[in-house]
Design a protein that fits this description.
- It is a single chain.
- The chain has 435 residues and is α/β, with parallel strands linked by helices.
- The protein folds into two domains: 214 residues, 3-Layer(aba) Sandwich (Rossmann fold), CATH 3.40.50.300; 191 residues, Nucleotidyltransferase, domain 5 (2-Layer Sandwich).
- It contains 15 helices and 14 strands.
- The strands form two sheets. The protein has an eight-stranded mixed beta sheet with strand order 3-4-5-2-6-7-1-8, sandwiched between helices. The protein has a six-stranded mixed beta sheet with strand order 13-12-9-10-11-14, with helices on both faces.
- Helix 2 packs across helix 4.
């Protein structure tokens, strides 16, 4: 079979001695599944007795799509007598002893650590539509690549295919590749439908007739478009954060701090002049004493009164309640605040503050007037999403663990930003005048 130019480009990296992870695709119709299947077929024939993984988010979908591509290609190559497919064990076994194991890689709540992969040892892996699995699943599969590598002088190789998605594939492959600082062992090859001269014109026309978001993603391969209707902050408003110089600093100053949960996340501190972000401090794992020193130091530097400081009181932050007296101890799961003496229909305080913050951003009422890690800043804002199941349910923001699954890391920055909302929402104490 004659490969497309982009497929040949990918094959080069799949055969070199440096690249360990290849992401191919970034649009519809670029020959993604065919590339993965051809690589598995060639590898199985070339390396006798090796074991390879063919995976997708759901096994049922894998069998209906990628496996059918496998059958089509082996038929064209006249290889149908060279293997046996066991539909019960979901294993393809070649005459030379090599195997392709079909795997369901969905993150089921009953198996958060992917113990179902158990003691699996493989030589390499192809994951079709890998944007539909979590970063955790990708990492676990990668950790299982060790079978007969030394025997054939191979290095671990993973191939993933995907359409544009604003999750870990964006942050781990597309964005670093676009910036030119992708890790040497990773490669991203974008293949568009127009690169595939085997596609019928009617298919290309059907892509052009999609809605704007889908057309941008699937035809033009535009990664910046997110077609998720649950997103609370729109794309343009996120980018306007850095140019909203019309936002007044205001008289009141605030500090909002998201404190690492027992060292698992980062400590992030925001200094606000009104709704203008004047400073953003990000510190890796640290102890409560150091956290307290940083918060108090910034409050003195920027003249922020203790009552205008809010900190995450869950986890490690709970230790600070006795040291930061009169500061607001923010508990994510606590009841939402009353507004105008009325209860608002939110599941918890965190959701209430995130929805409020999202509205401020969409209204162009927030300005970032300091140095920030812009890519991460933008990326985390795109994960501020509505997690309410139906209209009768209280409004809930996408939980942090879900964001971690899709983003591949913790949303430390936006958690610190949203807590600033509490000072707009909490009741103002009346000043007592003495005679």
């Amino acid at each position: 079979m004659k490969l497309l130019n982009k497929q040949e480009h990918a094959v080069y990296f799949l055969k070199d001695n440096e690249t360990k992870e290849v992401l191919y695709g970034g649009a519809a119709g670029g020959g993604k599944s065919a590339l993965g299947v051809l690589w598995l077929i060639e590898s199985c024939q070339k390396y006798e007795g090796t074991r390879w993984l063919m995976g997708r988010s759901k096994l049922k979908t894998l069998k209906e799509t990628t496996l059918n591509t496998f059958f089509e290609i082996t038929s064209k190559l006249k290889l149908t007598t060279q293997f046996n497919y066991n539909a019960q064990s979901d294993v393809i076994t070649w005459l030379n002893g090599s195997q392709i194991i079909l795997k369901d890689l969905f993150l089921y709540p009953s198996d958060p650590e992917f113990d179902k992969l158990g003691s699996l040892e493989i030589t390499g892996a192809f994951i079709d539509e890998c944007n539909q699995i979590t970063y955790k699943a990708w990492q676990v599969v990668k950790s299982r690549i060790r079978y007969k590598l030394s025997e054939y002088d191979l290095i671990p190789k993973m191939l993933g295919s995907c359409n544009p998605a604003k999750n870990w594939v964006y942050s781990s492959f597309y964005l670093p590749s676009k910036r030119g600082d992708i890790e040497p062992q990773k490669k991203f090859i974008q293949a568009l439908p127009t690169d595939n001269n085997h596609l019928p014109k009617t298919y290309l026309q059907s892509l052009l007739e999609l809605d704007k978001n889908s057309k941008e993603r699937l035809y033009y391969g535009n990664w910046e478009y997110d077609d998720d209707p649950s997103s609370l902050v729109n794309y343009d408003s996120i980018h306007d954060l850095f140019t909203n110089a019309h936002v007044n600093e205001g008289f009141n100053k605030y500090i909002s701090a998201d404190i690492a949960h027992y060292g698992s996340d980062k400590f992030v501190l925001c200094v606000w002049y009104g709704w203008v972000l004047k400073d953003l401090i990000i510190v890796d794992k640290t102890d409560p004493v150091k956290v307290e020193e940083i918060i108090k130091g910034q409050s003195v530097k920027h003249s922020v009164p203790r009552s205008n400081i809010v900190f995450d009181a869950d986890g490690l932050g709970g230790y600070l309640q006795g040291y930061l007296r009169n500061a607001y101890a923010f508990k994510n799961g606590s009841s939402p605040l009353k507004v105008a003496n009325k209860h608002e229909d939110y599941a918890n305080l965190k959701s209430q503050c995130y929805f409020y913050y999202a509205n401020k951003v969409n209204a162009s009422e927030v300005y970032v007037d300091c140095e920030v890690p812009k890519d991460k800043f933008i990326e985390e804002h795109e994960y501020i999403k509505n997690y309410s199941i139906d209209k009768d349910q209280k409004l809930r923001v996408l939980p942090k663990d879900k964001v971690k699954e899709m983003l591949g890391r913790s949303p430390d920055i936006t958690d610190a930003l949203m807590m600033r909302s509490v000072f707009d929402l909490k009741p103002k104490k009346a000043m007592i005048r003495r005679a």
